Amino acid sequence: MDSGSRPTQRLLWLASMDLHAAPCPEGPWEWQRADSLRRGEQILEEQRILVGIFLLARKDLVTLPHLEAFLRRHCQVEWVALVDPELLWEPRVRELLGHWCYDFHSTPVDPNRLRVILGHALGMARLLTRGEPGPLPGQAGGMLVGESPVMRQVLRTITKVGRVDAPVLITGESGTGKELAARAVHDASPRASGPFEAINCAAVPAALVQSELFGHERGAFTGAHRARQGHVCRADGGTLFLDEIGDLPLEVQSTLLRFLQNQTVQRIGSDREEKVDVRVVAATHVDLEAAVREGRFREDLFYRLDVLRFQMPPLRERDADAVLLARHFYQTFSRERGHRVKGFSAAGLESIRLHRWPGNVRELINRVRRAMVLCESRYIQPWDLGLEEVLEAPANLRPLEEVRADAEREAITRALALHQGNVSAAARHLEVSRITLYRMARRHGIPIPGPRGGDGAVP
Ligand SMILES: Nc1ncnc2c1ncn2[C@@H]1O[C@H](COP(=O)(O)OP(=O)(O)OP(=O)(O)O)[C@@H](O)[C@H]1O
């Protein structure tokens, strides 16, 4: 349904021949006219257009490959073709309509029918782009897609952390977006216009990490034919991102500690100290506290880095974000190469929702990318994503009692979080008495302030 506040949609009327062949039907939209593919291309680059019409007459057969390339590039638009009925016998035309168009209408145009088709095409386009993510208003991390409460919290944290110049430690499983979060911290900081230098400590051979980070003078060691600046100096005025910090060799840990204490670096083979102004953001997927206990990571360095810490939650804990991200990457990849796949089937989306995503966002990207290549129908199915067994897994069909208990636990936790632990407000929200809420919380092992304010106790 159209809501009054929705902005008017713009539709593209692309007619390389007679613009008057048919009148543009009136509707809750406005028309942008293009009399050539090139002009159409310009309009589509400048404006967000969900639905377009093009005319196809016999004389256009010669330029059909150009039209097809154009439609491939702009496959995010729902295209409606107005076709000379004679052309419907042409295999090339049939293929083009089948692959790239939402619908077609044979000429002469019946304005009422065309209006209905356009209405449907617009509805479908809105449906498919409904979850199209964008930056959350007023928050850092515009590139970080996510609307779940945990991700909103992460984005709020990033905004706050961005304002302060202290070191940051980002924890989280592999593929959860730690590097993206580090970049978001940089973008939210006063250093945003400075460089963002990233180094993956696990990917650089142990013998080279020192020189990669701090640089070296010419002849400092065998193979050092030229003097070289390290990542730390290149990050001057900006942010240095140390990914997989847990893999930093112990001797380099001491140099890094010295640098964090003095903000000076000394290239290998040099006796001169250089002053640099760098903010460090480190990330790890291993438990650094355990590494400290086991003597693999210096305790003093750990405390230097662990000033502002936040965790990137695993994808399985981000509610509907997996579906949102799948749609986001689908849009990104179809823009990149053009594709005839139109989106996800309902079963495809359900398999994405149910999967546990051990490889997190990176796994999701790979599965969507592969599905877009392998998909043989218009909508991505669970088997294209390699997730067919997810729907069949008996684990997804659980006894009602268990499902109810989970839902209850989640509702109580969320209500308490929403009302910052205020039991009366949470109880009102859940439409139960305070006593019932205490009883249920006790049953589910949820700590809430006791009736006389005993913080964190289960009464
Ligand atoms: N919330 C998100 N929105 C959009 N893209 C994301 C998001 N999270 C992760 N990605 C993408 O997922 C991929 C993996 O993210 P990233 O490299 O930041 O993860 P990581 O936690 O640093 O992984 P690792 O620990 O293996 O280095 C990247 O391509 C990144 O752009």
Automatic annotation (TrEMBL):
Pfam families: AAA_lid_14, HTH_8, Sigma54_activat, VpsR. Residues 144-373 form the Sigma-54 factor interaction domain. Keywords: ATP-binding, DNA-binding, Nucleotide-binding, Transcription, Transcription regulation. It comes from the Bacteria. GO terms for molecular function: ATP binding; sequence-specific DNA binding. GO terms for biological process: regulation of DNA-templated transcription. InterPro entries: AAA+_ATPase (IPR003593), AAA_lid_NorR (IPR058031), Homeodomain-like_sf (IPR009057), HTH_Fis (IPR002197), P-loop_NTPase (IPR027417), Sigma_54_int (IPR002078), Sigma_54_int_dom_ATP-bd_2 (IPR025943), Sigma_54_int_dom_CS (IPR025944). This is DNA-binding transcriptional response regulator, NtrC family, contains REC, AAA-type ATPase, and a Fis-type DNA-binding domains. It comes from Ectothiorhodospira mobilis. The lineage of its organism: Bacteria, Pseudomonadati, Pseudomonadota, Gammaproteobacteria, Chromatiales.
